[in-house]
Structures are given as C-alpha cells and as structure tokens.
Design a protein that fits this description.
This protein is of the alpha/beta class and about 450 residues long. It contains 12 helices and 13 strands. α5 runs parallel beside α10.
Length: about 450
C-alpha cells in the first residue's frame, strides 16, 4: 500500500485564497426553494463547503456524497482494462451476492462463524490436494489477506526452524540469509528487510531464461541460508522457475555438507494455473511431490478468480510450522489456534473462494486457464508477426524453444492444440521493441507505446 501524507487544510485554504484560480470546491445544498432535490442540485447550487481533509462539523446528504464520490472515482482507470495487474476484476452475480451478504463477517471470530470457518478448512484441504500433499503428512494452512502476508509467514517459519536448529547445535544465528531472483516481487524483499534476513538477490538473464539461475544458487548457499524463494510465475515475464532443478542442487548440497535448506514456492499466480493446465509446470515437479518444498503460497484474488483480499499459505505437514509461531486465542468465545500477521480480516472472500472451487470444479478452472493461455499466445504471436516487437515471455513458443526466430517463423496454432504443446508459464505477454524497429525508428521510445494504450484506457506498464 502506498504511503500517504496528511494535508493541513488551513494552509491549503490560505493558498487557494491567495491563488483563487487553483480553487476547486465540493459543496452541498443547505437551502432550496424546491421540495425535490437531486444530488447535482445540492452540489452545484451550494452555499457551504464540503470538507475534504478534516471531518466536517455537520454531515451532508447521502445522495449528494454518493454522487460526488462516484464522480471523483470515475477518474480512476477501469479495472477490467488494467493489464498491469493480475488481480481479479470479475465474479459471477451469485458470487457477488454471497460476498455482499457476508461483508460483516470477520475471520478472527471463528467461534461466531463456524460455517464460514468450515468453508475455510475445506479450501485449505482442496488446495493442499491440488498441490500434491503426500500420504502420511498432514498439510496445514491458512487464508491470508494476500500473497504478501503468506510469503512473510512462510519466510518466518523457515527462519524460526533455522534458528531452532542453530540453537541445538550451539552455533551463531545472527546472520541468516535467503536466496531469490532479481525478478522477485517486492513482497519477498520486504520479508527480508522487515524480519532482518540478508536478501541474496541473484541476477536473472536471457541465459537463465529470466528465471532464478541454478548455477548462482550453487554459489550463494551456505550454512546461514534459511531457505530459497522459488517463483512459480514471474510477475515480470510469466516464467516458471525450475523448482525441481533447484531442489536437486539442494539435495546434492545436503549430501556433501549435511546442511538441509528448504524451498518455499511463491506460487502467487502459478498456484492456480499449473495444477489445471495441460502444460502443468512443463513436465517438472514443483509442489509437495518434492520433499524439499516445505511451503507454498498463492493469491486467491489472482488466478483463484476472487476479488482482492485473499491469499493462501500451506505447509506440507504441521511439523514444518514451528509451535512457537502459533497463538492460542481464548477471548472470543472459544479456543482458536492462529498464525497470521493480521487479526481482523474479511471473511467474505473465503466464502467467494469456496464458491469458485465447488462451482467451477477442476474442469471449469482448466477451461478458464487454457483460454487465458490461448489468448496470450495469440496476442504474443500477433505482436511478433509485425516485426516491431519481440516477446520476452515465451508461452507462445513451442515446448523447448525459447529464442525468437523472427516474424517469418510465426505459426498460428489450431483448435486441437493445448498449453501442453508450448512452454509452460503464466498467461502473460511481456514484450519490447525489436532491434530492427529501434534502428529504423530510434526517435520512438518504448514508453510511448504505454502512453498510446492509455488513450484507449488500457493500463500497461
């Protein structure tokens, strides 16, 4: 969330008095000669200012305030044209109705809302099975307000397990570090900074396919490494990082040194794509099928298809969630075990997530994700066909092919094709101006493309 600063209304009013041309006031009607008042009549036939930066002494009519805020919010971008975000902007009418009916429910009041908490538990179980929970292990997890909180919880569990192990061995625990690629979303860096862990941010490159480089992982792990963040779906290019390959490297390292380094998979986007698509994760393992993967997070409000406000964190077994981090709460009418950074949080999104899971089912999610990938492939190929653009993302290239071949090599697919015929990844189209275009039109800046798209209300970073 962006930082905001307070406004001193006295200073602002003085500036506006000194420079009346800067003034822009919202007003509401206090007296009128008519018995029927519309929001616009109260707004424009005004006698009294409507305060912006300090609470007004007297309120204003509900219809006038509603219309004023609605008009101001019209200046925002349209969510369904915001191509800079993966966050959901559409839910079915029935799902929206469930959300509205349950807006007042608080996830922290487990004893008050047992039906909602049962749905929460079912979601954890369903997602655990989608992520390959193993026989003999009891997966445990929780809803969060998003993947950022979930990543922090996963990182904290890794740090605590590392600290407890160092204590048992009588070794120094003052210099923990964690590995991640430079393509990591800011939440991963926030974990390291907020919880005092050295972030070893490893370069990604065209050679590493814009993913965490396994060779750099080898060179940067040591006895103080609490874990490795591996991303299933880069925010920038949509690439899946090689979880299994990095797991194998850590296996070899443990054989040589006896040092056990866990993996947390940041599947903020890929966690609701890889389980459903025909491509999966490109034929490689990425989830709890790999013993070294101890925890996974995802965003229900991305490809889980829920409105903003819900994420998920799951550990492969309750033994990987240190008891020190769990809290027992006794003052809300019952006993609740909790491990979250937030306390009060909305429960409606959990209900919406459960609605999607049981309404869409496996085949419904598969159909949506395959359609998303098909659309992304078509757009990627159309962009490269012009010769003006090169896609950095590669889900439109045949499986195993990662290098741009030129516009003459572009082939459009057929109806029988699925994502399994192509490189696995998120339905992301990341593109740049081609070298030939930049040579012929050196005066055209890449930002201009974003600006031109803005004139059509599309938001593209």
């Amino acid at each position: 969330m962006a930082l905001a600063r307070h406004v001193d209304p006295d200073t602002l009013i003085q500036e506006l008095h000194d420079h009346p041309s800067k003034a822009h006031k919202h007003h509401f009607q206090t007296k009128t000669a008519t018995s029927s008042v519309t929001p616009y009549s109260s707004r424009y036939a005004s006698q009294q200012e409507l305060s912006k930066f300090i609470i007004p002494q007297q309120g204003a009519p509900a219809d006038a305030v509603h219309q004023m805020l609605k008009d101001e919010l019209d200046l925002d971008g349209r969510p369904n044209l915001n191509l800079a975000s993966f966050v959901g902007t559409y839910m079915e009418r029935e799902a929206e109705q469930l959300v509205i009916e349950n807006l007042a429910k608080n996830m922290s009041d487990a004893d008050e809302y047992p039906a909602m908490m049962a749905m929460h538990a079912r979601c954890v179980s369903i997602i655990s099975h989608l992520w390959g929970v193993q026989k003999g292990e009891t997966a445990v997890g929780s809803a969060t307000v998003g993947s950022s909180e979930a990543i922090h919880l996963g990182g904290l569990a890794m740090k605590r397990r590392w600290q407890e192990k160092r204590d048992k061995e009588g070794k120094d625990k003052s210099k923990p570090n964690i590995l991640m690629g430079s393509n990591a979303q800011v939440a991963l860096e926030k974990f390291a900074r907020y919880f005092e862990v050295e972030a070893r941010i490893l370069d990604v490159s065209e050679k590493s396919l814009y993913r965490l480089d396994p060779e750099l992982v080898k060179k940067n792990i040591d006895e103080n490494t609490i874990g490795v963040f591996v991303i299933l779906g880069s925010t920038y290019t949509g690439h899946y990082e090689p979880v299994e390959e990095i797991s194998n490297i850590l296996d070899e390292y443990e054989k040589k040194t006896g040092i056990d380094i866990p993996i947390h998979v940041d599947a903020a986007s890929g966690g609701f794509i890889a389980p459903f698509t025909h491509a999966k994760a490109g034929g490689r393992k990425w989830n709890f099928q790999l013993p070294r993967v101890k925890s996974i997070n995802t965003s229900g409000h991305k490809f889980g298809l829920v409105y903003a406000g819900v994420g998920w964190i799951i550990w492969r077994d309750e033994s990987y969630l240190p008891s020190y981090l769990k809290f027992e709460l006794h003052y809300l009418g019952g006993t609740e075990e909790s491990y979250t950074l937030n306390f009060s949080r909305p429960g409606a999104q959990i209900i919406a997530q459960y609605y999607n899971l049981i309404h869409l089912g496996f085949e419904g999610y598969r159909s949506i994700m395959e359609n998303c990938l098909s659309n992304a492939r078509l757009l990627s190929k159309a962009l490269e066909k012009t010769g003006w653009y090169i896609c950095v993302s590669d889900i439109h290239r045949k499986k195993g092919q990662h290098v741009y071949q030129g516009p003459g090599e572009i082939e459009y697919g057929n109806e029988e094709e699925t994502s399994a015929n192509y490189n696995a990844g998120l339905p992301v189209v990341a593109f740049r101006l081609s070298d030939d275009f930049k040579k012929d039109y050196s005066h055209v800046k890449q930002e201009s493309i974003s600006t031109l798209l803005r004139t059509k209300q599309y938001i593209v970073p």
